[in-house]
């Protein structure tokens, strides 16, 4: 066993600075866990002369990746630089040089996870990525180890803090999407280009990772159907509340008889669902297993120290494995061949809001379209819209399949009496056996 | 590596039956994780001729513990019989015979955990006990591995399903403790002798285990101060709601500057606290770490299959360790010497309900007692009690220490104008820096 373990850090941004602080502040605990001293040997940065928020010995900084990737003193490489191209090449080179890797990079793991895990395994190295999903929540460990005895059939994740903050604020204050987004940007909760967050892509990456692990199937990013929150209105949130729901941007991953569906979209959850009270920038993943039933894992989804906690916990596992000489043995290849559900097999209840001409027969035309497709209503609201010859109609359907629902949706747009389909959302977290 | 792994089961009650079912139903997944077939070789029962709810080959049943403890074919002993004396001897014998042990026994681990872990380590064996706390929630793993990089400063646990069911039902329906307890017994949620649950002892055992792991200190059951829910009234629950709180039986474990406090008592939580919406028989553990901040782990705290999930996940870890040849290496002795807070160091806000004589000067006597001890009020309600010359007074204090509060409490009883101190609860889950 080494007397000390040396870390090479790729990146010194938000997460990297957190990693430096935790390693400095928790030396005693680290030594207790790992059995040897842990310290940072080198840190790759773009500009070594830049001012830093974290106090750091300048000798540690380098602008040359080879100082880490080919450094014979370094045992573990921690990738917290983000992005895909550079990071991927660096990680592969580190693994080929027999260095273990810990990464917080969800883009990379969602797109190249299987390939990178294979390279790690071929080189007898660990590759861990707990921080890539839901920041400080140890969800990957819980799926892979804590619930390893069970067959997971459903995961619903609030895995993007920015959108959860926006929807919480819109719902509590009745504000518009645009106003709250601006506020979130001012507070640093949303980036100046918020597309990846608000359009659901960030959540989709995390769901691809969770789906792969939870269902033991190689889920690709392209398998996740994605819709963001930029069209959600304050009216939708108000109706959702009136009907006893809360709106959240959720990733939904379900398995039925060996076939899976994975998607990200704004959805309604019953207000007493465990996820319904997950607010602001918090993340949570609801996991349903055949044997265990309902569980939920809640915590901070981002931030310097929370995410760094996950990174350093992974480092501890790597270092324990080094002590025992068992690195590179923990990642299992998927057990099942990927089988995606067809649209006929994707079942859900739906919320729909329409603007309809306020005249005789209008309502009959709509109801006959639904009933002709064997879709029945669970709830219905209709009220006149002031100063217009229009009525607002809100429909909550019973369970139907995605194909039928989309067919009805497109037929509604063709009906003369329907002025517009204003919005439409899945309703999740309800039992269909009720 | 063995071609098959043989399990010996001590006990075939609720949890044991669940273990049998999961092993039968998840053979393919188990083989994938473990790399070899897993089967049950022998099951110790009190009466082999008894009718069982689970279908079982009668050849597997034995009434002789030696058929398991000294059976050379058996690799892993799973103790799900409960109780302490017999179970302790069996586990020690199994470990000395170099058999790994998985147990769901919270009584045993709370009382003899340190001793048993030492025996396991001396014999190069694993001893895991995830199922002993919060049933199907992988909380032990999350503390020991997922948050291993962090310094945990607070754990608040709803770790007893029976009492959570009773308090939820009392709060929702305004029913009395006695009525709801009877109902819980009829439904099988409470035992015919409910003492260990309702008086907080079961929760105390689990908090001793969580405290030991989370704070890396040898916490004994005697270190946990315990108060149950049998004196909670519907009036208390109603006032709690009015003031924006929810009442829960919680275990509280806090660490400040190296000193800890551990207790179990009915307490008020702000209604927007993550634990406040944990209802019915569900369990949840809220964990605060210096770096990660707020996290929560939610799920079923009891039940055959949920608890068995935790047992079988532990078995999988044992069997993976067998494949790698690294058993008996994972349990770390506590890093810190145990230091308990004094009553002066235990800080909290309190809720108190009094019956006071409805006459001039009564209120002044009470307020001067509090202010004389430097305790100020955050909230105050006073209203007359019908048909009596009494007023009901409800006080929410600002932060104070336990010693001062208990001093005030006993002085109040001596005041002439105070007819009775009806109830008194800690208020938890609030920030004291507000």
UniProtKB/TrEMBL annotation, chains A, B:
Is Ribonucleoprotein given among the entry's keywords?
no
A Pfam family of the record is Homoserine_dh
The keyword Manganese appears for this protein: no
Query: Per the UniProt entry, what is one GO biological process?
Result: methionine biosynthetic process
Quote the Gene3D superfamilies the UniProt record gives.
Answer: 3.30.70.260, Dihydrodipicolinate Reductase, domain 2, NAD(P)-binding Rossmann-like Domain
**What EC number(s) does its UniProt record assign?**
1.1.1.3
Give binding positions for NADP(+).
10-17
**For NADPH, which residues are the binding ones?**
106
* Pathway membership, UniProt: Amino-acid biosynthesis; L-threonine biosynthesis; L-threonine from L-aspartate: step 3/5; Amino-acid biosynthesis; L-methionine biosynthesis via de novo pathway; L-homoserine from L-aspartate: step 3/3
Residues recorded as binding L-homoserine, renumbered to this chain, are 191
Classification via NCBIfam families = PRK06349.1 (NF004976)
PANTHER family registered for this protein in UniProt: HOMOSERINE DEHYDROGENASE (PTHR43331:SF1)
Protein name (Swiss-Prot/TrEMBL): Homoserine dehydrogenase
Q: Which organism is it from?
A: Anaerobacillus isosaccharinicus
